[in-house]
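Revision sheet: structure tokens.
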Amino acid sequence: MADYDDLQYQGISSDNSKRSTRILSGVKKFCKANLLVILLLTSLKLGIIIGFAVKFGSNRDFSKKDVEYISFPGTLFLNALKMVIVPLITTSLISGMASLDKNAYGKLGGKAVLYYMTTTFIAVILGIIVVTSIQPGRGADKDAIQREGSSQQVNTADAFLDLLRNMVPPNIVAACFESYKTRQVPDEIEPGMVTELMSNITGATVTMVMTTEDGITSLVNESVMTTKMPMMRYKSEGGFEDKTNVLGLVVFSCFFGAIIGRMGRQGEPLKIFFDTFMEAIMRLVSLIIWTSPVGIFFLIMGKILEMDDWQKTFQQIGLYSATVMTGLAIHAFIVLPLILFIFARKNPVRYLFGVAPALMTAFATASSSATLPITLQCLEENLNIDRRVTRFVLPIGATVNMDGTALYEAVAAIFIAQVNGLNMDAKDIVTISITATLASIGAAGVPQAGLVTMVIVLNAVGLPIDDITLIIVIDWFLDRCRTTINVWGDSIGAGIVYERSKDELQRLPDPFEDNDKFSIGYQTPNINNTHDDTTL
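Predicted:
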């Protein structure tokens, strides 16, 4: 009987040992497969914790130079990402367009544009609903809200003309490092004309003071005598500035790739060149990706140390921030996953986990363009999205698809109206909807580009541009949140376009099927002259 009990105990112990081995093996396999995600989450948490610990534990104010030194490793990481943006966008679009026939890329492009416009407009409507429901600006003390920075005068017509100008750059090489921008500068007024305009509006009362060669002539409404506020005359002055013209590169690459694809055998050498160039860039990206945990840690810690008084900031415009965050959360966790499930039949949770490294990088860098290399890697490696789709859809999406920015601009515009005690009628709401949608398309994928396009929205509905300084103090944080939503929307768009285009893609040869898939790690050749991807 004792022998039987011993054998039974040994059997149970053996089963428990096997179960423990399987669990341990599963944990090791999970950690190995998701090592980058784990490292990124760890670095993000450590950056926040250590940043606040150093800020409140040191009892000192960190100068701009101190923050620059602390953030230096993160700056190097960000520069490394920016370094590959231009070759990545151009080669991926040219390679992708050249690999598809005219009917295929026409359908892919149509589906992508339809998705971008639909989700952006939904984001704007959602932002309007949220801000009108919560009303964060009602009852707010305008003077009590901390103002920081200065507003920038923008002419709406000039802004849209700049968008069209940048789509067709006069020099494609120069477009790699400069773009055209029209600025509003103070106008020089000749002697004998008005040299200063001052106005004060109280209801229907307007007071103007005009200066001529003979002296000062005042035109005053005698019923009201109040303090006058200065007004400045501006004129448009255009020129090139040091900023990559991503939109021009996208347009050129699309047309150039399409022409190469229609050249047949004559275009094969160019097609092979750009395919190979693209693979080389993606291998370089694979190396840069492994430095992202270190870079993100220092970027987040430096940004926290840079804050002057974060408690006061959130107290002053905390409800506005909460409104923006609420709208972004609804769009990110309800609207976009629902669209993904309905049109692509994919599990949103698994999809979110697959693009997690790109989302965390987007939050750290606040730039959808800088995150593009990692977004491509996540979709192609983790989610197995066809490279013909990702390399065509994602570069365009990183340039024109700005769901988070559109939602933010709608909320910010109505918030400023509420602070000023102005009521938005139906016409103003429609104007904000259309303008925010179009302005977000023109927003470059760089940090705080939404502030510039924000001025366009304010101009469209006649809101005071100077009041944009009310929200600058918190914009650094909200910019990271809306950039993350932008990248999440781009990723979902690529997945939907892929699922809805499988039939067309299956009828076409895959130009990448004989190429080595880029991978984070190294490749080991086998005896059949093929390559197996070994992920470290």
